[in-house]
Amino acid sequence: xxxxxxxxxxxxxxxxxxxxxxxxxxxxxxxxxxxxxxxxxxxxxxxxxxxxxxxxxxxxxxxxxxxxxxxxxxxxxxxxxxxxxxxxxxxxxxxxxxxxxxxxxxxxxxxxxxxxxxxxxxxxxxxxxxxxxxxxxxxxxxxxxxxxxxxxxxxxxxxxxxxxxxxxxxxxxxxxxxxxxxxxxxxxxxxxxxxxxxxxxxxxxxxxxxxxxxxxxxxxxxxxxxxxxxxxxxxxxxxxxxxxxxxxxxxxxxxxxxxxxxxxxxxxxxxxxxxxxxxxxxxxxxxxxxxxxxxxxxxxxxxxxxxxxxxxxxxxxxxxxxxxxxxxxxxxxxxxxxxxxxxxxxxxxxxxxxxxxxxxxxxxxxxxxxxxxxxxxxxxxxxxxxxxxxxxxxxxxxxxxxxx
Length: 404
What we know:
Elements: H1 6-9, H2 15-18, E1 23-24, H3 25-42, E2 46-51, H4 59-66, E3 71-75, H5 78-82, E4 90-96, E5 100-109, E6 112-119, H6 123-135, H7 140-145, H8 154-227, H9 230-248, E7 259-262, H10 263-278, E8 284-289, E9 297-300, H11 302-318, E10 324-332, E11 335-342, H12 370-380, E12 384-390, E13 395-402
Parallel strand pairs: 2-3, 8-10
Antiparallel strand pairs: 1-6, 2-4, 4-5, 5-6, 7-9, 10-11, 11-13, 12-13
């Protein structure tokens, strides 16, 4: 890199403006256009020295200046500039009876510029003198005849500085948002790849589980033939069947097979399945049917609905002992309401708003999946699932479904 002409580069040392910051190409283009536009629009008497690329955004202004009869517009070429032992520096120096300006800029990184800017200041003369010495030109008569009426307009300088800072903040915000979007795309691509990998692993695991379930199913049938104890065999067969159905639905987890079903029948099957399990902690399941005179039919996906009921009963069993867990059916308007009540450990108030969030769990060995999946399943069947109450006396989960 060629050595910098110190006299020329000293105008980048104004800390009031640069504050050691680099400005974007958009700022440079905007400032060039802002400085030139008033002269081009009014054909004001002025002399202008410039060296910069003809950016598309400002070509119209430059073209108009070339045809302004009162404007002496002197553009220095790259060839003229390269003859001197200086780094390439863009500049725009202007003086007129309205205002004068000195704007210098140097690209120090890709599309990042160090700049120097002064308006209505005697320092503009110093920049002109430097240009005159470097390029061996003399326009003293024209340059010094065009003097602004107010040489040191502090308010105008401050306004331009504030405008510059505003531009830069806007550009930085745009660049920041662009980076956020790029990061989001990167993270999204990574997550998609990660999800695909999990999906493939899950399919393999599901296949192995089905193999083991087939073995379990065979031995269940052998046990049934040898003992004939249907009280034990039936819940095992039912559980094996449900697990198989869940695995089969894994490929289409969002697909819901709605059919008109009797809700009481499904709940009674779940109670039957868990009755012996609850004996381990001396818990009992009690069904209170306040819809005895009604069929209690609803359009549901039987497997998914049973999963929800089983999950809530299991959670109730895990949180209590020596208790009567109540499953209560009532009618609420045109809906079937199922309340599952236990009198065990309460859910802490700060946890109650979070328990349906995917991944949130209060158990040491929990995955935080059960309740979020249950809420999704019930929602897909036009129902609701919520924690109605949890205090020191009781915890109540309620489900509602449209009644046929």
